[in-house]
Structures are given as structure tokens and as C-alpha cells.
Amino acid sequence: MKAIWNEQVIAESDETIVVENNHYFPPDSIKPEFYKKSDTTSVCPWKGTASYYHLVVGDETNQDAAWYYPATKHAAKEIESYVAFWKGVKVTE
């Protein structure tokens, strides 16, 4: 699977995990040069507290377009630190 934003592949892996129709990419599959930590967090009742990244490609920034759970609840351990996307990021084979 590939995650693409602004015509740039920002993550690529054959080992994503699908949870609630989102592909979660292993942490070593993201291209860190396109990610900037955000202060945003949100809470999922069964996964835990999510942290976010802004995506930066060229001169454009997509605010909080990627999220991950740095310390999941027990039920979501398989996706701990894995990264998922929204806000116009295309995930495709």
C-alpha cells in the first residue's frame, strides 16, 4: 500500500493493518522528511489517545493529516505507533 499526498509518496508498506477502514502503516514505512509533529491529540474509547503529524510536501502543509497511537490500550496493541491518514491523503495499492 502507498499513502500519497500532493503527488508525493509519504508512506509505503506491504504490511499495513486495517482497522475501521483505515490502513495503519508501520512506523518504519513512513518517509520522515514529510512529517512534522503536531500538538493535537484526540481520544478513542478503545484505542487510546492519538497524536498527530502535519504533512509537509514542497510549500504545502496538510494540518493534522496523519495520526498514530504512541501508547494504545490493550485492545489496539497491534497498531501501536502505526500511522494512518485522512484529509485528502490517498491510500492505494
Assigned CATH class:
Mainly Beta
**DSSP summary: helix tally:** 0
In CATH terms, the superfamily is Domain of unknown function (DUF427)
The proportion of strand residues reads over 45%
Broad structural category: mainly beta
Order of helices and strands: EEEEEEEEE
Distance between the termini: 4 Å
Share in helix: under 10%
- Within the CATH hierarchy, at the fold level, what is the topology? Metal Binding Protein, Guanine Nucleotide Exchange Factor, Chain A
Our Rg estimate from Cα atoms comes to 12 Å
Number of strands: 9
Assign an overall shape.
globular
* Uncertain stretches of 5 or more adjacent residues: none
Tell me, rounded to a whole number, the average pLDDT.
98
Describe the structure.
The chain has 93 residues and is mainly beta. Helices cover 0% and strands 54% of the residues. It has no helices and nine strands. The mean pLDDT is 98.
Which short descriptors sum up this protein?
single chain; 93 residues; mainly beta; Metal Binding Protein, Guanine Nucleotide Exchange Factor, Chain A; four-stranded antiparallel sheet; three-stranded antiparallel sheet; 9 strands; 0% helix; 54% strand; globular
